[in-house]
Design brief:
The protein has about 90 residues and is α+β, with helices and mostly antiparallel strands. The protein is built from two helices and six strands, in the order E-H-E-E-E-E-E-H.
Length: about 90
């Protein structure tokens, strides 16, 4: 999508089995495929100093997992405070 936003495959494994005698319409099948795609992919957003991960893999249980992972101390990413980086704020002081 962009450098800051990406969609990546997760570990969701949809149940592909069809019950014997079950008949699905084209609309039901398309909706199920879309649902499996959404649950099978995470949204990653790179933020200044952190990465946000939204994971819908447990959507069947009405759960959307959000993880905010901060960069380690050795990372070059700057933490933003009201539009200024930490280095800029140190310079202004």
């Amino acid at each position: 999508m962009s450098e800051a936003v990406s969609i990546v495959r997760n570990t969701f494994n949809p149940d592909k089995e069809v019950t014997p005698g079950e008949v699905r319409s084209v609309e039901e099948e398309a909706l199920k495929e879309l649902e499996n795609y959404v649950q099978g992919h995470d949204l990653l957003v790179k933020l200044p100093g952190a990465t946000l991960n939204l994971s819908p893999r447990h959507l069947d249980d009405n759960e959307l997992t959000m993880t905010l992972k901060f960069n380690d101390k050795n990372s070059k990413a700057a933490t933003m405070v009201e539009g200024n980086s930490v280095e800029t704020l140190r310079t202004l002081q």
